[in-house]
Amino acid sequence: MLEGRKCLVIGSGVSGQGAVSMLSHMGADILLYDGGGQITQEELEGRVPQGVKAACYAGQLPEELLSRVEVAVLSPGVPTDIPLVQDLKARGTRIIGEIELGFLAERGRVAAITGTNGKTTTTTLVGEIMKAHLGPEKVFVVGNIGNPYTLEAEKTGPDTVTVGELSSFQLETVDTFRPRVSAILNITPDHLNRHHTMEAYVEAKERVALRQTQQDWCVLNYENVYTRDFGLRCPARVVYFSSVRELSEGYFLKGEQIYQAEGGEAKPLLHIHRDMNLVGVCNAENVMAAIAIARALEVPMETILQAVKNFHAVEHRIEYVATRGGVAYYNDSKGTNPDAAIQGIKAMSRPTVLIGGGYDKESAYDDWIESFGDKVKWLVLVGQTREKIAACARAHGFDRIHMADTFEECLRLCTRLAQAGDAVLLSPACASWGMFPNYEVRGQVFKDYVNGLEE
Predict the structure, then answer these.
(1) Any idea what the Cα angle at residue 99 is, between residues 94 and 102, rounded to 5°?
(2) Which of 19, 162, 165, 303 is most buried, by CB atoms within 10 Å?
(3) How far apart are CA 244 and CA 230, in angstroms?
(4) pTM above 0.85, yes or no
(5) Three-state DSSP class for residue 117
(6) CA 219 to CA 160: how far, in whole Å?
């Protein structure tokens, strides 16, 4: 496969380290490169997995090496349009990503889940369903969820299932990747600073089904214009879910009940309040998608429904933290784009003090502001986008705005503004970069602050 071939791994984070480890098992001749400028040669060498031989290059890659590279493995954070990657392409180098590399060693079935929002919840839930069905030792949950595919793929076998959360960054570089079941939960504007156009972003998401055939399944959201359109040209068999209308085939939400429709006949499956520990219509959609994926993997419905009933919200996604002084605090740090943050607002049943702002991904905030309705009492803004969001809010007639210079100041301000019976919601509609390494750290800081407040 790749034995003896000179393979360049670009990026030394967890995905890059996983790629180095797998390439070592394959017998490749490995080069590890990190040109970020923030890592020393010694630090880079320290990231090579123990027992693995790899030549390391930090900051600058010698020109004479480029002509000898046969395969380049990109970490998800490495754009495909940077000069180095374009130079490699021009030389005829095969460009793949960590997901494609992992799939080369895959021996079981794969369920691949993408979408702008809801990926982590749906992936985690499908993983729990599959574990209930097959046993934990036969299920691997990988990808953008934090566990590199390359660290698990070689453990797979004919009776295993790999459940992957895949970002648009990861899907840009798939080629032979073919999941038994794919899912695109929704597509709304995001990461346009990376993809530049909405068309390119949509095309990246649709690559999840690139190599599928009519022997495979693709789960799609009927109420999203991009995914509904893709269903007309998808190479796999399509099953839809809808939170708005009744479907003759697929899964739909009617009132407070989730239904399964087959042959025009519908039967109730779950009550979204009595049978689920998740809140919001967005989570009803995630549950419907997870049910559809699991059924396509031939899991009995009884097993699926029991796993859904036992499932709780994933960390940092509309996560209830605590009530302090009669104020309920919710951590939705994973609401890193406006559409995700809209779902956080929809899930609130109390007057809400909302924390927004962060890194600018070139998003538009109009729809987010319009979703405030009479729920949002105060908007507390912090980070790079605070002035941009404030201007947008005022243009839409919302001026109950406070600015904070630091995240800590923002949290203290929210505590002063919130009254008994209110909620404080961290749902920033922006990435955390520039203030925090990732949304998990941002969410944990929020939770630590809340849990430190007096009862």
Answers:
(1) 90
(2) 19
(3) 19
(4) no
(5) coil
(6) 21
Dihedral of CA 14/19/24/28: which sign? Answer: negative
3-state secondary structure of 387: helix
> What confidence tens digit (pLDDT) does each residue in 359-399 have?
988 889 999 999 999 999 999 999 999 999 999 999 999 99
Number of residues written out for the chain: 455
CA–CA gap between residue 41 and residue 45 (Å, rounded): 6
18 vs 100: CA distance, rounded Å = 12
Q: What is the pLDDT of residues 178-232, one digit of tens each?
A: 999 999 999 987 666 776 798 999 999 999 999 999 999 999 999 999 999 999 9
Cβ burial, residue 51 (10 Å; 0-12/13-18/19+): exposed
Which of helix, strand or coil describes residue 328? strand
Distant-in-sequence, close-in-space partners of 202: CB < 8 Å, separation ≥ 6: 187, 226
Decide if pLDDT at 148 tops 80: yes
In angstroms, the CA 57 to CA 36 distance is 11
Query: Three-state SS string across 179-206, please?
Result: CCEEEECCCCCCCHHHHCCHHHHHHHHH
CB 250 within 8 A of CB 241: yes
**Residue the block writes with tokens 């990231």:** 47
Measured distance CA(268)–CA(253) in Å, rounded: 9
- CA nearest neighbour of 313 among 342, 341, 351, 276: 276
